[in-house]
Design brief:
single chain; alpha/beta; about 300 residues; eight-stranded mixed β-sheet; globular
């Protein structure tokens, strides 16, 4: 059930995530942004979940709009992208609905050991249906993108590989692309949750959610355009390089960027405009029923 909430001007929050702390330079909010927090019941999870919406300025004027599903990282929540980056400013001129769902520390995966935690189904079945059912969206892959950071970056790439009929663009910043592979060994501090989600090495859940395995499987539908970026001081740099190599060897459409930076909100905020720009170009090329970039407003 959707809870009606008035348009809000979102204040900058101090929320931080372990290992994902914002820099002191996070910018001031854009005035009069159209933001709404919503709750709905997920059939897959059997409980109420939260998401935050960022509407384009011209939404009230009518028409159907592309949607970007923007996924948070480990230890984060659905407010992070809006409160710890200048997302509102960067998206201000785009004819784009941004959906920021809550997903706990689930790795956006149907858990191998907790049958009730069906977080993949929650995103691709429940949330997409919720948004398409209640908002004026372009209801096919031409108008649908998914992206995220760290845990969310891994999930965006995974969903792009698993559900190419759903998304035209899949973007990752500092993606934890080895999540289902060997991340629990490389980063023991994450191992408890990783083992809960993916089970032990060799499990079917690992194989079914390993992006390095998924990319080798036959597919009849063109994959989305993949966008990868990672900081040169990030501990996920090598796995991003390795996956970019896989995309290249299979001649799939993608771009990969390495720029100075760590696993931090300072880096993600700085790289977000480039990701949005690539997404804008990609969705524009898909032939949606309206341009993604809003025309300039006359004075």
């Amino acid at each position: 059930m959707k809870v009606p909430i008035c348009w809000l001007v979102v204040a900058l929050l101090s929320l931080s995530a372990a290992g994902q702390k914002p820099s002191n330079g996070t910018a001031a909010r854009v005035e009069h942004a159209r933001v709404q927090d919503v709750v709905f019941r997920s059939a897959s999870l059997g409980r109420v979940m939260h998401y935050r919406l960022l509407f384009p300025a011209r939404y009230a004027a009518g028409g159907n709009f592309p949607v970007l599903y923007l996924l948070h990282g480990l230890y984060g929540d659905y407010k992070n992208w809006d409160t710890l980056t200048r997302l509102e400013r960067y998206a201000k001129s785009l004819r784009l609905i941004v959906v920021m769902p809550d997903a706990d520390n689930s790795w956006y995966t149907n858990s191998a050991t907790a049958p009730a935690d069906r977080f993949e189904d929650y995103i691709v079945k429940d949330l997409v249906a919720e948004i398409d059912g209640k908002l004026r969206t372009i209801r096919d892959r031409r108008g649908r993108a998914i992206a995220g950071l760290s845990m969310g970056g891994y999930a965006a790439i995974k969903f792009g590989l698993k559900y190419p009929r759903m998304f035209a663009f899949a973007g990752s910043l500092s993606g934890a692309l080895n999540a289902a592979q060997n991340l629990d060994t490389l980063r023991p501090e994450f191992s408890a949750k990783l083992l809960q989600v993916f089970a032990n090495p060799g499990s079917a859940t690992r194989t079914q959610n390993d992006v390095f395995t998924l990319i080798t499987l036959p597919h009849n539908v063109p994959y989305p355009y993949f966008y990868l970026a990672c900081g040169t001081a990030d501990f996920f740099l090598q796995t991003n390089r390795d996956f970019a190599g896989q995309l290249s060897s299979r001649k799939l459409p993608y771009e990969y960027h390495e720029t100075p930076g760590e696993h931090s909100w300072e880096y993600w905020d700085r790289e977000l405009p480039a990701l949005l720009g690539s997404m804008e170009r990609t969705l524009g090329e898909q032939g949606g029923n309206s341009p993604l970039h809003a025309p300039a407003t006359k004075p």
